[in-house]
Amino acid sequence: MTDSHAVILAIETSNPSLGPASVVVGRVAADGGVVILAEEALSPSGRHDDALLPAIARVCERAGAQPGSIGRVAVSVGPGGFSGLRVACATAQMIGLATGAKCVPVPTALVAAAAYFQREPGVERLVVALGGKRESAWVAGVDRADSLERQAASAAGGRALDAEGFAEALASMQPDVVLADAHLPVALGEVARAGGVPVQAPTLSARVAAFVGAALPTVEAQRMAPIYPREPEAVRKWRELGR
């Protein structure tokens, strides 16, 4: 599914609580691997809508890549912060429409899982919990033994669960570890500990999004959209108004 020798741009702005956002430019090799040419972390205190495009321009310049040479734009599409995800997806759409680059939505749960599988070769199955709010979090399971496309489908197919639903999910998935951000509801953390499943913070980076995005199917630029953990508040209010 890769474009041999194409330049790939990867963007990770999904979860500020897990570290700084980052952008990467790399070259996709004939074997599907990625050679990182340049990368940059965005300031944690900056606004992604102001900082993202200048950072992309700088990494492209350092990598010697012209905008027209970008073959793929991979974005860590969430769940995560609404603003960061919207800005990243809109930026990918703009680049895709302007240059003809192919867009690759990479579920953030897969970015977290791929990084963890690389660090911990003994882990076969994990659960990623993101976007916690009040009594629920968005939960998805990823199995190392699955193909990358199946892992991506599992990572994108999560759902918001409360403590009861989380307990059922853990009993069904039997994960080795739960990867959760700082917003994991206390009740869900207690469920994991009661079941003997360790909870650890995931690591997210544009570098991992590039490696994963080089091997996943592409979509039309117009179809790049965030994965939201639940319906956005503005959408709910608009719907309640009957608009």
Brief rundown of the structure:
With 243 residues, the chain is of the alpha/beta class. Helix content is 37%, strand content 24%.
Give structural notes.
α1 crosses α2. The chain has a 5-stranded mixed beta sheet, sandwiched between helices. The model has no long low-confidence stretch (mean pLDDT 92). β6 and β7 form a beta hairpin. The longest helix has 18 residues. It has 243 residues and is α/β, with parallel strands linked by helices. It is globular. It folds into 2 domains: 138 residues, Nucleotidyltransferase, domain 5 (2-Layer Sandwich); 92 residues, Nucleotidyltransferase, domain 5, CATH 3.30.420.200.
Task: Label this structure with key terms.
8 helices, alpha/beta, 243 residues, Nucleotidyltransferase, domain 5, five-stranded mixed beta sheet
Instruction: Write the H/E string, N to C.
Output: EEEHEHEHEEHEHEHEHH
How is the main sheet built? 5 strands, mixed
Strand line-up in the sheet with most strands? 3-2-1-4-5
CATH topology of the largest domain: Nucleotidyltransferase, domain 5
Overall shape: globular
Helical run tally? 8
Structural class by secondary-structure content: alpha/beta
Tell me the strand percentage band: 15-25%
Topology summary:
Layout: E1 7-12, E2 22-28, E3 34-41, H1 48-63, E4 70-76, H2 82-99, E5 102-106, H3 108-119, E6 125-133, E7 136-143, H4 148-156, E8 159-161, H5 163-173, E9 177-180, H6 186-194, E10 199-200, H7 206-213, H8 233-240
Parallel strand pairs: 1-4, 4-5, 6-9, 9-10
Antiparallel strand pairs: 1-2, 2-3, 6-7, 7-8
Helix pairs in contact: 1-2, 5-6
